[in-house]
Amino acid sequence: MDILEKLQNIDKRVFYLLMALAIAIPTISPLGLGVDVTPAVQRTFDFVASLPDGGRAVIGFDYEPGDEIDLNPQAKAILHQLGAKKIKVVAIASFPAGAMFAEQCLAILEEYGYEYGKDYVNLGHYAGGEATLAAFANNPTAIFAKDWRGNDTSSLPIMQEVKSMKDFTMAMTLNDGPTGGTGTHEWVRQAVMAHNVPLIMGVTGVLAASNETYVQSGQCKGILAGLRAAAEYEQLVNKLAEGTVGMDAQSMAHLLIVIFVVLGNAAMFLSKRAKGGAA
Amino acid sequence: MNISTNVGVWIGAIAALGIYSVLIKDNPFYRLVEHIFVGASAGIAIVTGVQTFKSQAWSPLTGGQWVLIFPMLLGVLLYARYVPQYSYLNRLPLSLMMGAGAGVAMRGAVESQIVGQLTATMVKLTTLDAWIIFLGTLLSLSYFFLTYKLEGGAAWAPRLGRYFMMAAFGAAFGNTVMGRVSAAIGRFQFIFLEWLGM
Lengths: 279, 198
What we know:
- Chain A is α/β, with parallel strands linked by helices.
- Chain A folds into two domains: 3-30 and 245-278; 39-240, Rossmann fold (3-Layer(aba) Sandwich), CATH 3.40.50.
- Chain A contains twelve helices and six strands.
- Chain A has helices at residues 3-8, 12-28, 39-50, 68-84, 96-106, 129-138, 140-143, 157-160, 184-195, 208-216, 226-236, 242-278; strands at residues 56-62, 88-93, 120-125, 170-175, 199-203, 222-225.
- In chain A, β5, α10 (208-216) and β6 form a beta-alpha-beta unit.
- Chain B contains six helices and no strands.
- Chain B has helices at 7-20, 28-62, 69-77, 91-121, 128-143, 156-195.
- Chain B is extended, with a radius of gyration of 27 Å.
- The termini of chain B are close together.
- Chains A and B meet through α2, α4, α5, α6 and α9 of A and α2, α4 and α6 of B.
């Protein structure tokens, strides 16, 4: 077997091992490669920065375990910005685990002197996807009689200020897709189209391309896509955390993939040419 | 190294290693962890379902919102499918769910996913980006023009449309790879930083 054939038939376990090393080494010993802020993330940051201080935001934690590596850092970075602007936060979740992630991320707000029930609340999980989101948009306390911690929502000061979706200065969905929960399309329909509330999205890398169209059409004010966007946002809010730590590993893993794609294709074309010449 | 003493972290780390062990080859350790994962997921779903029922149905009902008895009864009828002689009863709540779902979605779908997206393609052709959006939309649509086959000089339009779509698929695939790598990074951070404390 010549080198060209070997390159096309590398044992996949070799690739897995190299991938594990490409991720493990920068995780243990960060390389400090750095990340530039892209226009999409800058635009999202600028939009949130342009909101009046002391407003209200509703954030949908619409994701499951497995995607928290992309979306938890995004949530935490944007909560730092909301906290600095004293924007009150109402969290809801269309996936059961989303409420647990919300609880983890919202703890950041206490660094900014936020008080639970007055400045932020975690309403927990709701079933029913878009239909329930639409009902929530019309009357939030009718859907959530109790919050995630078991409090009566009508007794919470923050919920007494919110009578409908229109009372929010902005909406955000941290989203890993519509299967089993409320997707980004549903948020556009119920927050933007039905109530004219500005929406931003934080999505996994997989969903980036399909949702970018909403930003280009102006229906969505900004989009954060994947771990990279989280790292960029951490730079903008000056709170370097998990997103930034993960970017060295992300860069090395991508470099490895590119090398393998180039080598595999080059070997295939050269091999075909060699066979054609022999014939 | 400052290895974690948290039992939950240990269980999580061993489970992660078990799942990754399938990359070498299928083995009993992997299958054990996989089955535990499925069982735990089902358990969490049941607990959350009960919590959601209490929060969104039972508490308001006992608080005086008696009208909720009707959707709750409809919810119970969903399970009629497991009793063959009464299985037809589950069509009633299903029909209501489908009708309500379609109606709610229709509220903004036309404007958000058709009018809004079409409007976004009608841009001033003063930049390269604008030209790419304009031509990409037209040529991609031409690929799906199936009334009759475009031939001769017109055949280049669907061909170019296919190239535009392939570029979009490439971007989507690249983002997918990024997402999968992120998931692996999350587990590696958990193993090396949270479990092993490196």
